[in-house]
Design goal:
The chain is mainly alpha-helical. Helices cover about 75% and strands about 0% of the residues. The protein has helices at about 1-30, 35-45, 50-55, 60-85, 85-105, 105-115, 120-145, 155-170, 170-175, 185-200, 200-205, 210-215. Helix 4 (about 60-85) runs antiparallel to helix 5 (about 85-105), helix 5 (about 85-105) packs antiparallel against helix 7 (about 120-145) and helix 5 packs parallel to helix 12 (about 210-215).
Amino acid sequence: MALHFIIEGVIDSNIRERIIQSAIVLFEKHGFHGVSVNEIIENAHTSKGGFYHHFSSKDELLYIMHDMFISYVLDKSANVIQTYRSPTEKLIAILAEFIKVFDLYKPHITVFYQESVYLKGPYEQQIKLKRKQFKQIISDIIVEGIKCREFRPSLDVHITTMAILGIVNWTYRWYNRDGEKSIEEISRLFIDFILEAVLCEKELRRDLNKTLIQLTNRPTSRS
């Protein structure tokens, strides 16, 4: 009996992932309103019952595509805050995880930005809440860095936060796994650029080079 439940759970998990991957491919090609639930399940080789066992609607499916990558970033950010004391190290570590998302979840992110205008009600509210939480994490680190005199006192916290998010978020439009640079190399370039803009003393950058290399050389993983 226990084995039956284990096998059933694995099958359910596989069906859920197949539906998500099917929807990503179809939404990217035809748009959210250009794809029906029937087309999603046909492409995923499952049933309508299988779809509604995991998702209440196409809207929820689109929401989950976003939730997968924003939840990853929030979970990693919480761990970073518990692990590091220096605001500079926190910023490096969080940016490394943030940038990694564009390799781990590029199709999800592409579809979300392309089709998110169609999300309404509670799903839209939840997305805004989680994005606001991540924005606040970055903002709090900037404030902490200024107070600790690691970051330049002349920084405008809001503008600096928005600039960092803007720089990284646009990655989904041009990043290619088969491109000239790996996500780790791109991560180091972005972080170096951002540190150059925010750090109070150039010596701090030299001292943190080892930390930067270690954090951006970790294997890409969703765990």
